[in-house]
Amino acid sequence: MQLITDEIRKSMAGSSWIRKMFEKGLELKTKYGAEAVCDFSLGNPDVPPPAAAKEALEGIAAQAIKPLGLGYCPNAGIPAVRAAMADYINRQQGLEDAAVKCTADQVIMTVGAAGALVAFFRAVIEPGDEVVCPAPYFVEYASYCGHFGGVLKAVPSKSDDFSPDIDGLAAAITPKTRAILVNSPNNPTGAIYSAETMRRLAALVDSVNAERGESGRPLYLLSDEPYRAFAYDGATVVPVLPLTKWGIALGSFSKTLSLAGERVGYMALNPAMPEVGTLSAAVTLTNRTLGYVNAPVIGQRLAAQLLNATVDLGIYDRRRKLMAEVLSAAGVEFAMPKGAFYFFPKAPGGDDLAFTDVLLEEKILVVPGRGFGGPGHVRLSCSVDERIIARSAEGFKRAVAKMA
Predict the structure, then answer these.
(1) Per-domain residue ranges for the chain?
(2) Which of 76, 147, 250, 365 is in Cβ range 3.0-4.6 Å of 41 for a Cys bridge?
(3) 333: how many CB neighbours lie within 10 A of its CB?
(4) Is the Cα dihedral 312, 369, 240, 83 positive or negative?
(5) Rounded CA gap, 201 and 207, in Å?
(6) CB atoms within 10 A of CB 206
(7) What is the pLDDT of residues 10-30, one digit of tens each?
């Protein structure tokens, strides 16, 4: 009996490595104890939320017992939250002195950044349309657009620092391409795309749209930014909205405030975009009809009160530096991540599956890079305690020796 669709069957197979490593981690922890296992497989932020979250939650709790305190809100989000978010976006995206600034009308609160992407794709994707992105990329992108008949076209980086191949992205664009999707700081590589790279991408989008004309279907530049605050050593995350009127910024508070389980994100549309109100209304509709209805009201109110706060980013930076020491001591090649909280090192000998298996023998869990469009690498998450990173050092050395 065919219980599920072929499309979902393929998606399950494509994402099976993350699931496999998660299940293997549970098995190893049950067998040897949690302290014996070094699990770098999941990007689940473990640093506590800002201290101000406790007081904010207490205030929200007092309001929650009032009539409709936890009831439905408008599909695009709580009006006061959207207004606060518009001010936040203007600061974040460098629009404070712009002739046209973001208002609440161009901000939609969503169920995480993932929900923002899915709602956007539902609004603009026809079957057979394409989304182009640099590889390596976040593993779920293909599913997000594929649910509506879209096709993800990933263009591998040719650079050791995982910079996008602009010429390759340009060559991948066809009349069916609806968006270029970038993720900086990047999951899984930790790369932050340079100002020059972002300017070239914006210029490419503008050039394509000029060719398509006012009657054509526009090409959008989507910037997926849930790790925006995670930039190290003075690195700058370039805002997309000032670069092109077809720019859209998407983000969440899952990582910056450690609110991953609360599922609150946003989409900010460039206020200078032609017919921006139509796109905003369309995404508001799909946000509802996909079953999200509205972003969680507690998460919206909490995030709105903590817009000027972040988790202690110094903790992640210390982990990043310690992980670099561990990998270097083991002889593993890697590009030092400039942002996010991941490493994407090369697998010795170029076989990510073999290296993953050898690391498992050392009770170290990583995810093969091929699941992220980066075969020959593995992904490690640094959202773990420093003691786990330090404990993994000898295991990495033994694993590398076995690969020789």
Answers:
(1) 6-49+311-403, 70-305
(2) 365
(3) 12
(4) negative
(5) 10
(6) 16
(7) 777 666 677 777 787 788 888
